[in-house]
Every structure is written in C-alpha cells, then in structure tokens.
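Each letter names a residue; the fold follows as tokens. Both lines appear below:
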Amino acid sequence: MAARRKKAGPKELIISKARTKNAVKKCNVGGEFYEALDAQVRETIAAAERRALGNKRKTLKAVDL
C-alpha cells in the first residue's frame, strides 16, 4: 500500500499570529505581514544555523544572530 501524502497546502507558520498581533501597539496587522515575518524568521534561523555549523557547533547561540 502506498504511503499517503499530505496535500501541499500553505506552509505552517512558526510564528504566532496572536502573539505578533499582541506585540504591535499602535498599528493594525495586515494578513500578508504574518507570512513575510515568518519568511524573515526562517531566514534568520537558517543563517544562524549556517554560522553555528561553520564554527563547528551544533548549538545555536545568541551570537549566531
């Protein structure tokens, strides 16, 4: 029996919409902002991971940001 594949839907966000909205004090948050913020966070994490591995570490630290 073939393994069932999940439908290729929207990527699950690693950021919290509710927490993001709560962090914003004086503006509304547009729907596209969450996806753009999520993309930025993912790139920041990937860059930090590359830096840690480049320094022969398997633990991300604040200095990697």
About this structure: Residues 24 and 59 are 30 Å apart (CA to CA). The radius of gyration is 17 Å. The chain has two helices and no strands. The first helix runs from residue 17 to 23.
